[in-house]
Specification:
Blueprint (H helix, E strand, L loop, with lengths): L19 H4 L7 H7 L2 H13 L7 H15 L4 E5 L11 E3 L1 E3 L5 E3 L3 H5 E2 L19 E5 L6 E3 L2 E10 L8 H19 L9 E15 H4 L3 H6 L24 H16 L4 E6 L5 E6 L2 E2 H21 L2 E4 L13 E9 L16 H16 L1 H7 L21 E2 L1 H13 L10 E2 L9 E2 L11 E3 L4 E3 L9 H24 L3 H16 L11 H10 L7 H4 L6 H9 L5 H54 L5 H28 L7 H27 L12 H6 L2
Parallel strand pairs: 1-8, 15-18
Antiparallel strand pairs: 1-2, 3-4, 5-6, 6-8, 7-8, 9-11, 9-12, 9-13, 9-14, 10-11, 14-19, 16-17, 18-19
Helix pairs in contact: 6-14, 9-10, 11-14, 11-15, 13-15, 14-15, 19-20, 19-21, 20-21
The structure holds adenosine-5'-diphosphate and magnesium ion (MG).
């Protein structure tokens, strides 16, 4: 047969390997590209908005839109979309092509300033927590010029904010940007007293992202993974994580190929993917970017999660971002590294060589201490999700109690201040390895305390409670706002004081004395800490349902409205959405549990137990004495009975779901539905250990965790 003259496929082998430097940001309309394509004045105006947060000059949009479109089309894009972050926690996009009909029956490719600046997606199907009735479907998206547009999937994506017709925000970006503005404003009020000429303060975030990989074929055999993101059944494998051989272990080839491609995709989008390694659990990994300003870090973390999932598919894998895919195995979190910096290059959380006499550092540190103590319950709310409930306090992640770790050095500094002493004991210095040929290593001022939810790590804080699937917007809205609030209090005092520096000392000392209960340098995993925390009066909010009502208490509503981060209606709507999310998540899990138990597990157990029972009966009939096999048959039959009664009990629980307000419903799901699910699971998991492998209807933990 004659070969057809097909065009040459562009195979991996033929592709020219480009350097990281070349591919980095190649799909981003960044400042470098703008400088090539836009008039100088336009670039200057945009640069000012990006760096100083000032409003954009009118008239710039038209010029930018045109240049963006030409650039995108050259890169093969056919569509554009306003890319936004509704309250679903994932990003949303609606694609429009650039085509406009021309007189001659052909088309031209157009994109106007108006289309760049404003979009009107139908908002009715996005969660609004009762803000917007479905008949008021109108929603608006507004261009965020501080986050670069990028090309994904042949589509020009324009980062935007999303709000309703009446102006209430319906997304995560707008309040985040508001919180940064508030933080900047209050920090600058304080900085004035330290002779700073900064005009903008930003919070910086580096989110470390944990995830699991699972083989796609195996995944597709598990309804629970497909529908809920976590396993609702399954026993721990014979080998778990007890050998600690996975953490930082050598990366398997298939995983390594995945990570390489993920890095490349992220670099093309301008995401500063930096660190990758195996995590504690088998098949668990982490990716950390280099930190950036919070708004960008948040956009990039959303893109990272999306790319993690997308690239996995190309390697026959599925990426699980759920907080607890496997029971008995470590779950996944997201460490939110957070710091404060000025546009004059100062990190306000850097202790310097002499922290005891570094008043500016101590005052900003005090603001964080005060904020975390006064609003620890709100930080707990910010990480409250059905998925994260399985993780927090489970001896693998920080407890559900918010506390702060400062390390020995800083604690000793604070003790000296409390005592009014002018010196403190430092542990920093040089570590001697005792080997002449090895260089000596300078010790950090803090050791690591993995058990602390909010730990000072040298020049930043690491908030370790967030769940792996969460958007980092919510957490940083809270951190920015509570720190801004503490700074505002300080600024009020300083502006009234006749001797501001004496006032600074007083504020620092008062904070240390009044808020030291939040500082805990010990083991956060221990039971004693729970008791100790209660004794200190720190809120112990074990579950999402315990935590969420804090969101709508007067203290919190006043905080957000005082600073203009959320209106009262916006807070209340978010509370509704969070409760609904919790209820929906557990409802889906409950229905999936029942479906798998009834349609897959029970039939398998019955079939296997019947086969043993028939074999025993047959042996009996010809006089073969098999008492042990008879016992096994009984055990299997009893196991089936236990499973059936657990299913029936759960059916009963599901038929009695209350119909009052959402908090009552959520409480019912937490107390009754989750425990009914546990009972079904225990019955099924017990059977898994005695039913033949051939009969078991889906892959077990061993396969899921090790066949990657
Ligand atoms: P760890 O040892 O804590 O796992 P990683 O290197 O994995 O450290 O991640 C640390 C994260 O903290 C990175 O994303 C890094 O960019 C970020 N980071 C470093 N310095 C700062 C800072 N000043 N502000 C915010 N984030 C920072
Ligand atoms: Mg870390």
């Amino acid at each position: 047969m004659k070969e057809k003259n097909l065009p040459q496929a562009v195979s991996g082998g033929m592709e020219l390997k480009m350097s990281v430097k070349e591919i980095f940001g190649e799909n981003v309309f960044n400042l470098a590209t703008m400088k090539e394509r836009l008039p100088k004045a336009t670039v200057k105006s945009l640069e000012k908005t990006i760096k100083d947060g000032t409003p954009l000059d009118a008239g710039v949009a038209e010029v930018v839109a045109n240049a963006m479109k030409d650039w995108a089309i050259e890169k093969g894009a056919t569509h554009y979309t306003h890319w936004f972050q509704p309250m679903t926690g994932v990003t949303a996009e609606k694609h429009d092509s650039f085509i406009t009909p021309a007189d001659d029956g052909k088309i031209i490719m157009e994109f106007s300033g108006k289309e760049l600046v404003k979009g009107e997606p139908d908002a009715s199907s996005f969660p609004s927590g009762g803000i917007r009735a479905t008949f008021e479907a109108r929603g608006y998206t507004a261009w965020d010029p501080t986050s670069f547009a990028f090309i994904k999937d042949d589509t020009l994506c324009i980062p935007t904010a999303f709000c309703s017709y009446s102006g209430e925000v319906l997304d995560k970006k707008t309040p985040l940007m508001r919180s940064v503005d508030v933080l900047s404003k209050e920090a600058l009020r304080v900085l004035k007293f330290f002779g700073s000429n900064a005009t903008r303060v930003e919070s910086y975030v580096g989110p470390e992202q944990e995830y699991f990989l699972v083989d796609k074929d195996l995944y597709e055999q598990r309804k629970d993974l497909m529908l809920t993101g976590r396993t609702l059944f399954g026993n721990k494998p014979a080998k778990g994580q007890e050998l600690d051989d996975h953490y930082f272990g050598v990366i398997k080839e298939r995983v390594s190929a995945y990570m390489k491609e993920l890095d490349e995709e992220l670099w093309k989008l301008g995401v500063l993917a930096k660190t990758k390694h195996n995590e504690v659990a088998p098949a668990q990994h982490e990716l950390a970017p280099i930190y950036s300003v919070t708004n960008i870090a948040t956009d990039h973390n959303q893109l990272t999660m999306e790319m993690m999932k997308r690239v996995a598919g190309r390697h026959g894998l599925v990426c699980l971002l759920h907080e607890k895919p496997y029971e008995g195995i470590n779950g996944s979190g997201k460490h939110n590294n957070w710091s404060l910096g000025t546009n004059t290059g100062d990190n306000l959380l850097k202790p310097g060589k002499d922290p005891l006499h570094n008043r500016r550092f101590l005052l900003f540190l005090s603001a964080v201490i005060k904020a975390v103590d006064v609003y620890g319950d709100l930080l707990r709310v910010a990480v409250a999700t059905a998925g994260n409930d399985h993780r927090l306090g489970a001896n693998e992640a920080p407890p559900a109690i918010v506390s702060m770790f400062l390390g020995d050095d800083l604690t000793s500094v604070l003790d000296s201040i409390k005592k009014g002493s002018d010196s403190y004991e430092s542990i920093s210095g040089v570590i001697e390895t005792g080997v002449l040929s090895l260089p000596s290593i300078v010790r950090d001022t803090t050791d690591r305390n993995r058990t602390s939810p909010f730990a000072f790590t040298g020049n930043k804080f690491e908030f370790r409670m967030p769940g792996s699937s969460q958007s980092i917007a919510g957490i940083n809205i809270v951190i920015n706002t509570i720190v801004a609030d503490a700074l505002a209090d300080f600024a009020d005092e300083l502006e009234k004081a006749s001797d501001p520096m004496a006032k600074v000392d007083e504020l620092i000392r008062d904070t240390i004395i009044n808020h030291s209960r939040i500082i805990f340098n010990g083991n956060g995993y221990s039971d004693e800490w729970v008791e100790e925390a209660k004794r200190r009066g720190l809120p112990v909010l074990k579950t999402t349902v315990d935590a969420l009502p804090v969101f709508v208490c007067d203290k919190v509503i006043n905080l957000f409205t005082r600073h203009g981060v959320f209106s009262k209606i916006e807070v209340e709507s978010r509370y509704e959405i969070l409760l609904e999310d919790y209820i929906k998540a557990i409802n889906i899990e409950a229905l999936t549990t029942l479906e798998m138990a009834k349609q897959e597990i029970l039939p398998a157990c019955l079939a296997y137990s019947d086969s043993i029972i028939s074999s025993v009966a047959m042996k009996d009939s010809i006089g073969i004495n098999a008492p042990q096999q008879k016992e096994l048959a009984k055990k299997l039959s009893n196991g089936c009975e236990t499973l059936i009664s657990a299913i029936n009990a759960m059916d009963d629980v599901m038929s009695k779901i209350p119909e009052n307000d959402d908090l009552v419903i959520a409480t019912y799901y937490k107390d009754s539905v989750l425990s009914a699910m546990d009972t079904v699971r225990s019955a099924a998991d017990a059977m898994e250990t005695i039913v033949a492998k051939d009969y078991w209807p889906f892959p077990t933990y061993t396969e899921l965790l090790y066949k990657v």
